[in-house]
Amino acid sequence: MREDTKNDATPAAILLSSxxxxxxxxxxxxxxxxxxxxxxxxxxxxxxASDTAGRKPGVIRRFLQLRQQQEQRxxxxxxxxxxxxxxxxxxxxxxxxxxxKWSLSFNxxxxxxxxxxxxxxxxxxxxxxxxxxxxSSYLGQL
Length: 142
Fold this sequence. Notes:
- This protein is of the alpha+beta class.
- It has helices at residues 11-23, 29-46, 59-89, 92-96, and strands at residues 101-107, 115-125, 131-141.
- A three-stranded antiparallel beta sheet has the order 1-2-3, with no helix packed on it.
C-alpha cells in the first residue's frame, strides 16, 4: 500500500488502494472513486426487481385486456341505456301519450285575468309525436 492511504481506514480507501496496485492503473483518484462507487451501486441494485416485474403482461396480452375492458364498458352502457328506456316507457304519462288515444281538455275560467276564456276541447293522438285537437272557448271580459 502507498504511504498516503495507510492512515485512511475507510473501505473506499482500501478498495482504491487495492485497485490501484492490482491493475496498475494511472486513473485519477476521484474518477476511480466514482467508478468503484458506481460498480458497487450497480451490484447492489442488480438483484432487485420491482414488485410488478413478474406479473406485468406482455404488450399483446395487455392490448387484448384493454380491448375486452372497453367492450365490457360499452355493453354495460348499452344495457343501462336499454333499462333507462324501458323504465321511461313504463311511466304512466308516456303510456298515456301513446298513439290511438283520445283526450279531453277543459279550459277553466281565469278569474284573475281581465280577459278570460272558458271552453272544452277534444284531441286524438295520431302517433307518438303528432296529435290533432279541436277546442272551443267562450271569451269574456271582467
